[in-house]
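Try this one yourself first.
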């Protein structure tokens, strides 16, 4: 017997991974898949959206459904990197509607998944810092603020791509004398199996090293900063300050300076052990909103997409609780391994 169609499809799709989860109305997981994103910088493009479809089909297979069967769920909540402007929301919505993945589609930026996953309230501020950086906020009265967050042309700086590029920039200048000494001049080439920053430049220039691999460098940068390298610390401090600027600007726009607003931090850049980095963010946010609660999201952001969907469906409090307790990183990873085995079979 074919299983009954799930009530909800929740998707969180960023530049590094795509999570797709099928849920019943009671919040239980019918199927799930986690796939790596193959196009870090191309979020919101056709190729990235086709990867979203791959993840949805993998989740359907995991749930015991025919991956080609459409729609896979009654409601779909798609929290997507690349849904940066209202025009993007409409464009992505039209694209999804043509694929008939779900009976009803809701498109949001992935910052809203981080926010909903990181607080029990319907309001707050979220800052995402992964491949790039973004921020969104919702006021208690429902007012929303967000940033275009499409890179340097919209005034952004930060995330893995910018941090990696800055680390390499300083390493090169340390080697040739244009900049101060830094351990990055040794550690960045070593990361790529090379000896000198100049060799990294040549490998990138001649195509022996893919340019997108620069995004691998933030852990090298943070380790150097923790160990006291002044140049690395300068770059890490700049990232912390950019996160603060986004968060406090959202707080001010929504007039939440006097509220105990939750500020949720999500994305790969926050997976580090640099206490000074987090202390600088806390200090900057609290200087503007003294009763704010700043914390890093540890749970999968797709939980936020699922909760937004359950909110839309008017599901019970028990359903919301079940999602939070069962939709863990371990569960997603386990489901992915199982799905991959069945697809190969």
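Now uncover the answer:
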């Amino acid at each position: 017997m074919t299983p009954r169609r799930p009530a909800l499809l929740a998707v969180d799709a960023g530049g590094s991974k795509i999570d797709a989860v099928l849920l019943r109305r009671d919040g239980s997981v019918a199927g799930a898949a986690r796939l790596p994103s193959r196009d870090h910088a191309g979020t919101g493009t056709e190729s990235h959206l086709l990867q979203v479809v791959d993840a949805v089909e993998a989740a359907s297979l995991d749930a015991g459904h025919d991956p080609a069967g459409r729609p896979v769920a009654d409601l779909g909540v798609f929290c997507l990197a690349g849904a940066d402007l209202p025009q993007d929301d409409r464009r992505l919505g039209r694209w999804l509607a043509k694929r008939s993945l779900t009976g009803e589609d809701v498109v949001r930026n992935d910052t809203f998944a981080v926010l909903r996953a990181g607080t029990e309230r319907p309001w707050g501020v979220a800052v995402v810092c992964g491949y790039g950086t973004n921020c969104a906020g919702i006021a208690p009265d429902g007012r929303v603020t967000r940033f275009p967050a499409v890179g340097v042309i919209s005034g952004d700086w930060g995330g893995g791509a910018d941090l990696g590029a800055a680390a390499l920039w300083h390493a090169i200048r340390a080697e040739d004398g244009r900049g101060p000494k830094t351990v990055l001049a040794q550690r960045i080439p070593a990361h790529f199996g090379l000896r000198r920053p100049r060799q990294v430049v040549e490998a990138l220039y001649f195509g022996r090293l893919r340019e997108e691999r620069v995004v691998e460098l933030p852990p090298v940068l943070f380790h150097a900063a923790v160990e006291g390298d002044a140049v690395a610390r300068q770059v890490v401090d700049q990232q912390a300050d950019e996160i603060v600027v986004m968060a406090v600007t959202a707080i001010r726009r929504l007039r939440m300076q006097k509220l105990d607003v939750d500020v949720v931090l999500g994305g790969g850049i926050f997976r580090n052990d640099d206490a000074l980095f987090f202390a600088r963010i806390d200090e900057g946010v609290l200087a503007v909103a003294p009763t704010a609660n700043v914390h890093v999201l540890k749970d999968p952001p797709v939980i936020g997409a699922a909760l937004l969907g359950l909110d839309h469906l008017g599901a019970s409090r028990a359903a919301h609780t079940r999602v939070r307790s069962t939709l863990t990183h371990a569960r997603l990873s386990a489901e992915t391994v199982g799905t991959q085995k069945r697809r190969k079979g």
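Discussion: The longest strand covers residues 29-36. DSSP finds twelve helices and ten strands in the chain.
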